[in-house]
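Supplementary Text 2. Reproducibility record for the structural model of the 212-residue chain.

All settings were left at their defaults, and a single model was retained for analysis rather than an ensemble. We include the record here because the model underlies the residue-level annotations in Supplementary Table 4.
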Amino acid sequence: MTTDALMVEIRAVLKEGGEWCDLEKAHALAAIVLALRPRVVCEIGVWMGGSLVPIALALRALRDLDIAAGREAIHRRAIAIDPWAKEASCAGQEGADQEWWASVDHDAALAAFRGRLDRHGLAEIVEVVRARSDDAPVPGHVGLLHIDGNHAEQATRDVARFARSVTPGGILVLDDLSWHGGHVRAARDLAESFGFRELYPLGTGIVMQRIG
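Retained model, structure tokens:
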């Protein structure tokens, strides 16, 4: 599959995941995967796979390129961490945000995500971990870490637990940097203390690279 064909496919399937990830971000995440060729990608906060499915499609494209070139396909995986649980989603939220998360069907969102994996041939690439990020195992040698879970204090805890598993040169993407409460900004600052440096903004978030 060519890069152009991958980007067209991402555009075609993006709406299946709702309004959580726009095309610019989906294409940017896929491009990061193509450039870095990571063996392990980890996303915290998956919901219906708005951003995880484009990432997984890019990992599949790398596998197909290996096969087309007659090379042994490197095993690459995306680890999708999300509790899909009302209590976890509502923790630390206020007002309309809390009301919305309390009203939506988390099991249905997980079912929709798994259905997308099956429909697009991604189930073998994506490891689904239904757990709070506080409890999920921390993978090693992460090339791309996308943190888009609960934006309260959980955001800082997620960076504290997972960011140091990103390999030097690897990428951290944080979503909703200006979310009220300041916790995502605090998470950004913590990442900087671990040796991450800002590369560029991406939508409402930020892309950082681990320098040391």
